[in-house]
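Reviewer 2 asked us to include a model.

Predict the structure of this chain.
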Amino acid sequence: MSEPAVKISKPTSFTPEELRKIQEENPESVEVYEFEYDTVDRVLPAKEVKDVIVAIRGRYDAIRAEKDELTDEEVQALLIAEDKAWKSFATHTHPTFFEKATTRTTPSSVFTNLLVMIQTKHLIETGQADEETAMMAMQTSLQQLYSKK
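Predicted model (structure tokens):
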């Protein structure tokens, strides 16, 4: 990734329009994520989401190591067949997370970012931080993770 034209050195809030403009000006170095909310019957606590997605990703990696020739769809079908909770996660509660965790084309940085977002949600749910503080902490964490040393 090249250096972005805009330097952001501290947690900052942007409007969606500002984010789109920054990304358009820096397509090689800026990634903007939008929260996508799936419609669900029961909202899973963030800790449960983390436990499930980490288990799914671990099993996905194991299957890939054993049977690299399988398509993503074939691996996903195996995962869904292995565990009823995983099937619910994949088909009802968190299909977007499941897809991101079980697709070859998803960069590892995206999975890392998902885990950071889940941790942020956990801080909010458990009252360890209000939403604004937690979002700023998440931004700081991601900036530290991806900044050059």
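The CA atoms of residues 18 and 46 lie 29 Å apart. The mean pLDDT is 85. We have added this to the supplementary material.
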